[in-house]
Amino acid sequence: MFERLRNLGYEVNFASHAEAILSVDFPDVARELEDALLGVKLPISEIVNSGGGEAQLTQRLRRGFHALGWRKRNVEMKKIVDGVEKESISHEIDHFLATPRGNFALEIEWNNKDPFFDRDLENFKRLHAEGVVGVAAILTRGSELQVALRHMVRDWAIQNEVTSFADLKSKGFKRPTERQETIVQAKVLRGEVFADAWAAMFCSDKYGMATTHWNKLQDRVRRGVGNPCPLVLFGLPPSIVDMSA
Fold first, then answer.
1. Is 72 left (phi over 0), alpha (psi -120 to 50) or beta?
2. CB 63 within 8 A of CB 54
3. CB 134 within 8 A of CB 101
4. How far apart are CA 115 and CA 61, in angstroms?
5. Which one of 5, 77, 225, 237 counts the least CB within 10 Å of its CB?
6. Residues contacting residue 168 through CB under 8 Å, at least 6 positions apart
7. Please, is 190 exposed, middle or buried when counting C-beta atoms within 10 Å of its C-beta (0-12, 13-18, 19+)?
8. pLDDT value for 77
9. In angstroms, how far is CA 33 from the centroid of its own chain?
10. Where does residue 78 fall: left (phi above 0), alpha (psi -120 to 50 degrees), or beta otherwise?
């Protein structure tokens, strides 16, 4: 299953019998999901120039899934005892697809703080227990892409002849913090090329180990977070990055 994605370098993992459930109850959804992910492209300029707010990649994916019928859904669960409401909990799902065989939930975590994985998985667990969700999926940065980001950012800097913070400013970057400038300048004084020093600092700050990526997601799934909700997990590969754009 999802062999075409694997051939492009996607990491795919299943938990709690999700693969069997997908093959029997959701084969059309699985093919539709694979087709959508096969078309994912990420210009290197978006990785380098990304600012606050929702990433452009996430926005494109959201629009694509919306066109396929995946909608944002708020599920409210209430506990009522003898006619008196004791508790009310609302769960928001960014991508929700209702089918005759059951419902499918999907969250995209391109670059959030890694506790968002706990939120997503716990939401899936509760919604599965209440019969709202049959299978859930999470899409995040793959482990190979996580490692490759530093090299990609360095190559972008070299291709664009970035040799100083002044060059970055001319390309629309914000002024670095004092800490960032000190780190990079110290490395340059020790003989490191500016592109290498800046790429290391940039990726550590922007796409560091405490953000959402494959290894952080796998750690949680191995610990049983979200269990027993059937899960399919996707890690985006380096092959989606367009170094010319």
1. beta
2. no
3. yes
4. 22
5. 77
6. 162, 176, 198
7. exposed
8. 78
9. 15
10. beta
Mean per-residue pLDDT pooled into runs of 10, the chain (245 residues): 97 97 95 95 90 80 93 86 78 93 96 96 95 96 97 96 95 91 96 97 95 97 96 98 91
- CA-CA distance, 10 to 145, in Å (whole number)? 10
Percent helix, strand, coil in the chain (nearest 5)? 50, 25, 25
**214: Cβ–Cβ under 8 A, 6 or more apart, which residues?**
11, 140, 141, 142, 143, 146, 233, 235
Cβ atoms of 116 and 109 within 8 Å: the answer is yes
Separation in Å, CA 109 to CA 31, 54, 103, 172, 204: 21, 10, 20, 26, 18
Distance CA 177, CA 90 (A): 39
CA-CA distance, 110 to 58, in Å (whole number)?
Answer: 7
Q: Are 140 and 217 in contact (CB under 8 A)?
A: yes
The residue whose two tokens read 């010319």 is 244
Q: Measure the CA–CA gap between 36 and 60, rounded to whole angstroms.
A: 11
- The tokens for 214 are 């494959």
Q: Give the per-residue pLDDT at 52.
A: 58
**Identity of residue 201:** M
Using alpha carbons, select from 119, 12, 61 the residue that is nearest to residue 127: 119
